[in-house]
Amino acid sequence: MKLPLNWLKDYIDPKLSTEKLVERLTMAGLEVETVESVGSDTVLEIEITPNRPDCLSLLGLAREVGAITAKAVKYPKIKTFKTSLLKNAVHIEDKKDCRRYIATLIKDVQIQDAPAAMKERLASVGINSINNAVDVTNFVLMETGQPLHAFDYDKLAGGKVIVRRARAGEAIITLDGLERKLDPSILIIADAEKPVAIAGIMGGKGSEITSQTKNILLESAHFELGIVRRASRALGLRSDSSYRFERNVNVDGVLTGADRATGLLLELAAGRLAGRQEVSSKSKTASRTIKLKVAEIEDLLGHPVTASQAKRALVRLGFNVTAQGAALTVVSPSTRLDVNQAVDVIEEIARIIGFDHLSSKMPTIKSQNITVDQRPRQVKEKIRQALTAGGVDEIITLSMVNQKAMVKTNLANLASVRVLNPLSQDQELLRASMVPSMLQAVVTNINHGQKDLRFFEIGKRYFADAEKESLGIVLVGRRAHDWRLPNKDTVDIFDLKGLLERIFANIGIRPIYAANQFPVLDPDCAAALTLDGKYLGALGKIERKILQNWDIKHQDVYYAGLHLDEIFSLPSHQVRYQAIGEFPGITRDVSLGVKKDIPYQKIEDICLQHADNILKQVQFIEQYSGDKIQPGLKALVFSCIYQSNTRTLREDEVSRVHERILKALTSELDAVLR
């Protein structure tokens, strides 16, 4: 935006040197990019940010200068004209695109050169003089910021204008002499037969003002910023008017611009007012009331401010301010659509005080003892130690998946958080399960020739109301690569269980294995993990159908998932060093027939409950299910190892404890000794 200092002095004389004015404007947020001489005038080129369309006019900049220099602005006297006489001259088909349109008919004008003073003002901002009528519209545009257009009324078919979308195949020759092809995405001004202007951008050659013009229809309107921007880009056509409409022209300024231009045309073109018509869907912008306290201003700026000082700064900018003690009630003017909340008001106060005048000091920092829960970090570190020691590699996968992956994994019904603006379709959901991410990693590795996989990930699952820390473990392929082994055995569920047992031993918990109904796992090879009534996760073999969905055809995939947030909240038992026993142990083997649904862990728990602290270990040996055992039962063989850390055990005391254990097993589990 160009600011000629001679033109500025028509409204306010800052009585500052050019250098000082440049500094004050820049420190108030209106950066002066260049200073140049145009004729006898000095012109400042000011960078106006997109949120400040109020500064795209001489009066807007004069108001800013008045605010930072505490001087009054002398606004031009604008005569008001009533809406009357003119009827059916304006028709708006889409009031969403055009909120307000004022058409003023001025007859019997005399088109001639504009006064020298007006030519000089326009030349200082780079606008060539055309004639007195066109120059008035350009002058008012630069003065008030309201775009205007003057039509030769006698060239409008039907004596009216219609605001509508262009029709397919229509075209217009604009004032620059070029033909522009139009389409229905472009808003135009038309007469009863054809387009006569591109709304908010440029008028047409066929209705321009010439020396032969006798009657003028003056347009002052508000067009929706989006439709002007899109049309300007589509046509490759920009103008001073479109530049302002694209930044949202003040709808309340439509009447001010119409009145100012009408008064000047009646004065300079010797015409007479023949009538005016206004069509609008909303004539005024709703006021915005903001309440704040002086303490809020001081807290944000770190600078002492009084209520009266804040009020003076805001009033000079056109705000309506009521002060009650240390509280301010601020009403934003219609020109300041960017001021909507307290921080916006505080910024305005800071600008007028001057950012360079604000106190510069370090903030007061009060030291506080912050209690940090170390349990999550410690648990995750122990999990990493246990798994990496077991030859499992840590991976990191994307936290976002697509809906197809959820469907392939039989998790389509799981509530997932959808990304509103995903980078790609593959990242449309925040994962609610780690299984799809882990299976994608399996597929990628297998496709690259890596078929023996052992990896884990500690990451998050996402839900509408929470993020949950989780652990996923995957085992695929051979158990070992030792060439000396005759059989290249593949991993199974017990390899996975062994890794989990290593983890639980490291973090000091002992979950219970129970039946599981997780939709991803094969029900015949799966278990749930619980402790103290909390569900900690599951382990098992991925269902064959799901593996086929992922194109994993010839390998079994074993997966374990733990809910770490639940584990973090569990009390841990301190793992303490114990010396290796110096005294000999006594081993007693047990062959037991129990129901198939009884887990081995329950047998071990019963043994330890009746051991009198001399049972050192329960060691599983083998399991048998077949023709030689009763239906519904399974045969287990395990060893009970008895040992004391303080003495050599006697045979009779071991026998007494061992018999008690056997009795407990048969009575509590209906077991059969074999």
Give the helix/strand layout.
Elements: E1 2-4, H1 5-8, H2 18-27, E2 32-38, E3 41-46, H3 58-69, E4 90-92, E5 98-107, H4 116-124, H5 132-144, E6 148-152, E7 161-165, E8 171-173, E9 179-181, E10 187-190, E11 195-198, E12 202-203, E13 216-223, H6 225-235, H7 240-245, H8 253-268, E14 272-280, E15 288-293, H9 294-301, H10 307-316, E16 320-324, E17 327-332, H11 342-353, H12 375-389, E18 393-394, E19 400-401, H13 403-408, E20 417-418, E21 429-430, H14 435-447, E22 453-463, E23 466-476, H15 493-507, E24 512-514, E25 521-531, E26 534-542, H16 544-549, E27 557-563, H17 564-568, E28 586-595, H18 600-609, E29 615-624, E30 633-642, H19 651-669, E31 672-673
Parallel strand pairs: 4-7, 18-22
Antiparallel strand pairs: 1-3, 2-3, 5-13, 5-14, 6-13, 7-10, 8-9, 10-11, 11-12, 15-17, 16-17, 19-21, 20-21, 22-23, 23-27, 24-25, 25-26, 26-27, 28-30, 28-31, 29-30
Helix pairs in contact: 3-10, 4-5, 5-8, 12-15, 18-19
* Distance between the ends: 100 Å
Q: What is the number of helical segments per DSSP (H or I, 4+ residues)?
A: 19
Determine the mean pLDDT: 91
Number of beta-strand segments: 31
- Over all CA atoms, what is the radius of gyration? 42 Å
Structural class: alpha+beta
User: In what range is the share of β-strand residues?
Assistant: 25-35%
Unreliable stretches? none
- Share in helix: 25-40%
Strand order of the largest sheet: 18-22-23-27-26-25-24
Form type: elongated
What characterizes the major β-sheet?
A: 7 strands, mixed
